[in-house]
Design brief:
This protein is an alpha/beta fold. It has 8 helices and 11 strands. Strands 2-1-3-4-5 form a 5-stranded parallel sheet, sandwiched between helices. A 4-stranded antiparallel sheet has the order 6-7-8-9, with helices on one face. Strands 10-11 form a two-stranded antiparallel sheet. Helix 6 crosses helix 7 and helix 6 crosses helix 8. The structure holds calcium ion. Calcium ion (CA) binds next to loops.
C-alpha cells in the first residue's frame, strides 16, 4: 500500500484544526495537530510530515518565525509549508512567502481549496505521493497503483525498494552516493547506516530480476545509478 501523506496542522483554534483534520482524513491524508510552536517543534523532531499547514497567529512564536526557522534547518527545509492566516494584505502575503512558505491561504477558506493546495504543493515537492507513471527503458513504475513492470511483466517490490526505485527512476542516469540516497529515500531516519542502502539495493535487484536488475549499476567509490543503457561488463567484477 502507498503510504498516506502526513500533514502537520499547526493551529491554535481547535475548531479550525478539527475541521481541517477531518477533511484531510477523508481525503487520504494522515493529519496530526499541534496547537502551539513548542508542540509543533516536538512533532517535527519526532517525524517529518509531507506538508505543514501553519497558522500565522499562534501563542508564543508566530507562524512566520517558525516558517523561517524550519526553512533554515537542513532537516526541515524541504518540507512544504502552507501558511493559514486571517491576514489578507498583500504585504503580509509577501512576508509569508519570503519566510519560505510555499503557498498561502486566507481564512476563511473552503476545505476544497485547502485540499487542492495541499495536493499542489505535494505534486511540486514529492511527485511520488500523488501518483503518475515513470518509465526508464523497459521498466515502468506507477505510483498511483503501486505497480512496477519490466517488459509488461509485473514485479513485486517491498515498500522501501519501491521508494528507492522511484527515486532512482525519477533521477535516472545520475550517480547517487549512499548518503544522498539515505537523505532522499529514507529522509527522516538519520540514524540509519549507509550499509542499509546496499542491503536494499541488493533486494531491489533481486526483485527486479536478472535483466532489469542490471539497470541498477554500482559505481565504485561513488554510489549507484539507474540507467537505461546497460553495458555488459567485460569481466565479472563484483
Ligand atoms: Ca491562530
Amino acid at each position: 500500500m502507498r503510504q498516506q501523506p502526513g500533514v502537520l496542522i499547526v493551529e491554535d483554534e481547535p475548531a479550525i484544526a478539527e475541521l481541517i483534520a477531518v477533511n484531510l482524513r477523508h481525503n487520504g491524508f494522515r493529519p496530526t495537530w499541534a496547537m502551539d510552536s513548542a508542540s509543533a517543534q516536538r512533532e517535527l523532531d519526532d517525524v517529518l510530515p509531507d506538508v505543514i499547514l501553519l497558522d500565522w497567529m499562534l501563542p508564543g512564536e508566530s507562524g512566520l518565525t517558525l516558517a523561517k526557522r524550519w526553512r533554515a534547518n537542513p532537516r526541515t527545509k524541504a518540507v512544504p509549508i502552507i501558511m493559514l492566516t486571517a491576514r489578507s494584505d498583500e504585504s503580509d502575503r509577501v512576508s509569508g512567502l519570503d519566510a519560505g512558505a510555499d503557498d498561502y491561504i486566507v481564512k476563511p477558506f473552503s476545505t476544497k481549496e485547502l485540499l487542492a493546495r495541499v495536493r499542489a504543493v505535494l505534486r511540486r515537492r514529492a511527485p511520488e505521493q500523488v501518483g503518475g507513471v515513470v518509465a526508464v527503458g523497459a521498466l515502468s513504475l506507477d505510483s498511483s497503483t503501486y505497480r512496477v513492470a519490466f517488459n509488461d511483466q509485473m514485479l513485486k517490490l517491498g515498500p522501501t525498494e519501491f521508494k528507492l526505485l522511484h527515486y532512482l527512476m525519477t533521477h535516472a542516469e545520475r550517480v547517487h552516493s549512499r548518503s544522498q540516497l539515505l537523505d532522499k529515500v529514507w529522509g527522516d531516519h538519520v540514524f540509519i547506516e549507509e550499509r542499509t542502502v546496499d542491503v536494499h539495493v541488493k533486494r531491489l535487484r533481486e526483485a527486479l530480476g536478472a535483466s532489469a536488475g542490471q539497470m541498477i549499476e554500482t559505481v565504485r567509490g561513488a554510489g549507484y545509478r539507474l540507467t537505461a543503457h546497460v553495458v555488459q561488463a567485460a569481466s565479472s567484477a563484483q
